[in-house]
Every structure is written in structure tokens, then in C-alpha cells.
Amino acid sequence: MTDDAEPPAESKLTRSKQRWAREGKFLTGNMTRPEEQRLPPGQHLTRDWPVLDLGLMPDISQARWRLDVHGAVEHTIYWTWEQFLAQPQTQFVSDIHCVTTWSRYDNQWEGLATRDLLAACRPREEARFVVLHSYDGYTTNLPLEDFAAEDALLAHRWSGEPLEPEHGGPVRLVVPHLYFWKSAKWLQRIEFVAEDAPGYWEVRGYHNRGDPWAEQRYSGD
User: Fold this and answer.
1) What pLDDT is stored for residue 1 in this prediction?
2) DSSP label of 5
3) Is residue 126 within 8 Å of residue 93, measured between CB atoms?
């Protein structure tokens, strides 16, 4: 198992987003259902893919990249890049919804479906949550059922090309039905746990789940 990275240092972005959470910025108070409306409330469309991170982009080559899967699982995993690519590969097309109000339609992803990862590691009965750990020290948490969504995957390609470092390459999580801060960049470890463990933004005022159609931007929403 790789050592934990230090939590990212506070930055201007961190302080701004904590202030947004306190002030309830971007909230509209509207709710929709994804089967009725493709664009969640308070969102606007963009053709670009804005880059948002904590100011530290780790330089992780494919040769150095490793993925640990551990915790409440029957089979602990420690994959190299080659071993990861040897797993079943899946392609999905899905939308991105960022908590900072932009959305981007029809993103083409390729990677390992989380359901195939679950088949490989076999979570134990007590596993109810997943904690994602990134190479920059970032963490975020998900209920197991959200991690296991039909179109969720560990992506290494976007629009037919290798996922660029600024967007989370070599590998990032993609969970399309939640705000995109839940889709951790620069994925290093996946930890299965019995008790919930809020991550970097969740302890700084962001919602613990982050459903865009319920506009769950901040804690208490």
C-alpha cells in the first residue's frame, strides 16, 4: 500500500469555495429530475473543459502510477499501469456537472467500469462507503451504491485520447450523476469502509453527496 500524501495546503481557491459554501453562492432553490431535464438547476453549458484543482498538479507518469484497492474487500488490489489496462475496458458517453455551475455534454470516456472493479476486489458485507485518495492528497467520499453506478468508471481516455494530467490523468474517477468534485483526479487509492469519512471539500462546507438535480451544493442543502 502506498503512503498517504499530505493534505493539500489551503489556497485562494479553497478559501473562496469555503466562502461560497457559507454564503450559499449559486443556489437557486430549484429541483429537477434527470429523466425530465438534462441540465440541472443553476447550471450553464460550456463547450470548453475548465480546469479546477487545488493548485498542485502531481507529475505521475504511467510507469510510476499504481492503484491500491483495499479496506473492507475480499481481494486487495495493487495494480501497475499494465495490470490496470489488462482489465476489461469500457466506453461511456456522459455529461459533466461542476458545482461551480458549468456543465459539459457528451464526454467520451474509456476506462475500467467501477462494476468490473467491484467484481475484482469483492467488497465485504460491511463495506458501505468508498473513499477516493488522490496523488495530490485530495480525498472524497461516496456511498457504495453511487460508486457502483452503471456509467461510473476509472477513466484513462477522453475523446479518444489519453487523459491529460490537467484533467486528472493518468486515471481519474468519473461518476456522472454527481457533481464533478466527487470524481477524484489523479486516482491513487480506493478504500472501502464501513463508516462514512467525509473528504476534502465535504469537511469544508460542501454537501456530503452532491446530487446536481437536487442542487446539493453545500452541507444542509
Assistant:
1) 47
2) P
3) no
- Closest CA relative to residue 178, chosen from 135, 124, 216, 221: 216
Whole-number Å distance between alpha carbons of 186 and 140: 12
- Starting at the earlier edge strand, list the strands of the sheet with 187-193: 77-80, 66-71, 187-193, 129-134, 139-143
Q: How many residues does the chain have?
A: 221
- What's the grid cell of residue 137? 492528497
Residue 192 phi/psi, 5-degree rounding, is -95, 130
Give Cβ neighbours of residue 174 (< 8 Å, ≥ 6 apart). 92, 94, 109, 111, 152, 153, 154, 155, 183
Query: 131 or 18: which carries more pLDDT confidence?
Result: 131
| Helices marked H in 51-156 | 81-85, 114-121, 144-147
The predicted model scores a pTM of: 0.85
DSSP calls for 34-54: TTT-SSPTT-EE-SS-----S
Per the CB < 8 A criterion, the answer to whether 194 and 126 are in contact is: yes
CB contact at 8 A, 107 and 97:
no
* Cβ neighbour number for residue 23 with a 10 Å cutoff: 11
Of 149, 1, 6, 129, residue with least CA distance to 70? 1
SS3 180: helix
Strand boundaries in 72-115, DSSP class E: 77-80, 90-97, 102-113
**In the block, residue with C-alpha cell 491500491:** 68
The one-letter amino acid code at 111 reads G
